[in-house]
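Hi L.,

As promised, RmlC-like cupin:
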Amino acid sequence: MTDKSISSEQQPTASAFTLKTAAAALSIALIAFTLAFLPTIRASLPKLIPQKATTNSIRAMSTTSPSLKITKRPWSARGHADHGWLYTFHTFSFASYYSPKFESYGPLRVINEDRVERGTGFGTHSHAEFLIWSYIVSGELEHKDSMGNLEKLRRGEVQFTSAGTGIRHSEYNRNNEEDVHFLQIWAKPNVKGLKPSYVTRKFTDDMKKDKLVRVLESVDRHDGADTESSPIPANADVSQDASILSPGKSVEHTVVGKGKRNVYLHVVMTGKKQPQTGGAQLKVGETVLGEGDGAFVDGSKGGDVINIESVGDKDAEFLLFDMGAEEV
């Protein structure tokens, strides 16, 4: 019976045994090959991803809402005057420059990019019911006012005056070696009849390097800090940030407040004209800004995220204003 059962079963032939043995050997060889070269395969995988698809560029494509309307304000379209001692550009209507399209933006009323020659300046004059601050880019600016303040301001410093019921002041370049380059900014307060006040803050290049630094904040959102580099408290629905972005770097601004907001960006110029090629450049959405350019960002609301990417070949210094949409 044993013989019959054995003989009735199909016995493996020599050729079948050889094929199965070869297949097993091939499988073992493939496993050994894979294990031997696995580190090399893993190391080569990142190279299959295009270098341009960096985290920053992916973030830039995905975080700025497509519903935002971004309108470029070219540097050369601003009001401009060359008085010899003063070389200036006006984002909004100012002095001899007037445009009904550009009178203000929310509470923001003035952004003048000024260069004042050595040994000259703005003589004593008066203001009332305005918030006025100077952002020093280079050189030295002397501030003197009717409150008894006398101070020399240098790069990184921001001098803020709440004119309130009225002040008199002068801004002068006493330095005999270099011109002073600064941004003069005005906003309308949301409270009138205040006592005049004066504040100075300092924000170094290192503080602003590749990140946004809050320079000025509405008193409604201010945390009460009063240090050399804490945000300036302002009686207006305005937040202002500053940054110096290296080429290829990006930052994100989360829109403050609630409801409809206005956002404006201004790229600081390094010379009296925008470079014909290269220079500092920023990308906001699909809009590219060069030196001296600005951008109105409409359609934003509190909590929205705006990505700003440096796409030029030089560091890009810029200011960002986040404001209530209502004009004061």
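The helical segments are 2-8, 14-44, 55-63, 205-208.

Thanks again for sending the construct details.

K.
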